[in-house]
Request: fold
Amino acid sequence: MLEYHEVTRFYGERRVLENVSFSVRPGCLTGFVGANGAGKTTTMRIGMGLLSADDGYVSWDGAPITRAHQRTFGYMPEERGLYPKQTIATQLRFFGEIHGLSGKEAVLRADRFLDAFGLIGRKDELLESLSLGNQQRVQIIAALIHGPTCLILDEPFSGLDPLAVDFMSTVLREKAQEGVPVLFSSHQLELVERLCDELVMLVDGSIRVNGVTNADSDADMPTYRLEMGEDMSSLKAVRGITILGQGPGWVEFSPAEPGVEQEVLLRAVSLGAVTSFSRVHTSLTERFLATNK
Amino acid sequence: MTTTQRPAWVVVLLREMGMKVREKTFRIGIASTLILVVLGIAALSFFSNKTENHSIAVIDDAGTSVVHQSGDLLRTLKPDSPDEVSVVRVDAAAVALDKVSDGTTDAALIPVMDNTGAALWKLVGNGSINPDLEQAVAAVVQQTATSANAARLGVNLEELGRGAELQRQLLSEKQGNDGSLFVLKFVFSFMFVSALMTYGLAIAQSVVEEKESRVVEILAAATSVKYLLVGKIGANFILGFLQVTALTTIALTGLAFVNVIPDLGRVAAASGWFIFFFVLGFFAVSCIWSALGSMATRSEDLASSAIPMQILLFGAYFLSFTAPEEILRVASFVPVFSSIAMPTRILDGGVEWWEPWAAASGVVVVGILAIRLSTNIYLRTLMRTNRRTSLKEALRNGPS
Reply:
């Protein structure tokens, strides 16, 4: 497990990370979101050992992380981190060898990945001749070729079409299922919500959200919505609720304690036909916007 | 294909070399340098080894004898490339003059009388007479006349000539600043400066390209950035060394083949020093190049930050064959400049044995300082991919 412990980092006088703590658990896809300049890339670079923390530390499986651990990780930097004027096969072999594989093993693994990713027929072409989506496939192979113990991917979905997004999602899901902790940043919040098991949200260098992606952000004060044709003004009389919004045929309210919403429902049913009664979920995008206001 | 793991710096070195030799610009650069070297040798051969054949019309045996002796004298004066002198025997002075007029012969040697009735020789040319030929004929005529007059007057010729001999001694082995030496300096300096420039710039470009494409982040995550630096410098050093060694060998073989340089041994020794100084200078210069590359974030930035280095190297180049002797002597002890200036002085001759070693020591000391400083800058600035780093910032901030 990869863990950040109260990591703080300055660029000159400017503090870009402040007491950042979170975990990337094995078998989990952890989404890392935040506005531009929130500190995501800096956090990931610290995890990879490319930058040092001014305070706090990162641990791997409970012990302070070492360069030796970090060199077993797979990493995808923001934008394209490959050689545009080199053939696909040659550079994958290079990335394999730089991670400590023998030349033979690197070629073998590269071929296997290229075959699985549908690029084996183009392995002798220059990288720049591939489409963005295919370049991203090569990029992920470069991160996977040495069998990484952890994956840290900065914007892996950036600029991809829906098919390529689907392909990349499948690859990441498979790696997570193999027990590899996967941390990736993205601005595609719906995708993060759909794909990730856990979520970390960074705002101005500080953690604002850290937990299960689908966890209800308003668990301590849930919102319910009730819709019916009858007059609902008498519902206000139910003790322990706060009306959050009201309109013709609908009302949204928050119960002071669990169970009160059932009383409201019973009262509504006694008034007439209830057409809809549901808990209101806040989407990640709404939460993101609310948190970053 | 290897079945064993290779050290990261070897992996980087092999990739750099492989990419470089596949580059079209690299191959064109090598080919054009090779062409320049071959053309230089050909020019040297053309200007230095040009043997002229002078034909002289004469009308009697005495004239024939003077021409033959002139030929012998020319052979003594220019043993490496003697001019040939041939006799064209004709019946009368008028015919000899016709031969000169219509260009059949270069000159005519005709016996004439002066107003005192003494026999003289007249050398007749059409428009011009080759100065070497004229000098040789004049010397032979004077010698012949002096001998004849001495015999007629009963004077001992040896006694007459006592004290008239000019002895020749050179205080140093410095060669004359003739055309062939200039061409040699031009070609050799170009070979080495272009190698320092080409491979140095290649290192800087390689560094900035990896920063630009963010590959450096993957590499730095996978291995130590020191190995990246070692691999890059090593690859370009090997290519540069192979290039200068191969070109020097070709140049020396060519010079030996055309046989225009009387003291080829000295040129070979100077070439050895050129290579020696190239090796020393390369490491210092290459580290500076890598630091320049790491301070830039885009290839465009590199173009401006490389200018001082280019001026420095081209300055060393032009100094090598244009600077006055004293300035060249000073430059030959100034590191970086010395890498070109000192071997150039060795080529000139007249360098004390300790001077190259003193200059080399200077390069080593400055090189070590440059390597330490540049490596620090490289390590500090390599991960700054968002903007160009100024030298002040690079020196001020600690490793990231």
About this structure: The first helix of chain B runs from residue 8 to 22. Strands of chain B lie at 53-58, 84-89, 107-113, 119-125. Chain B has two domains: 8-46+177-396, 53-129.
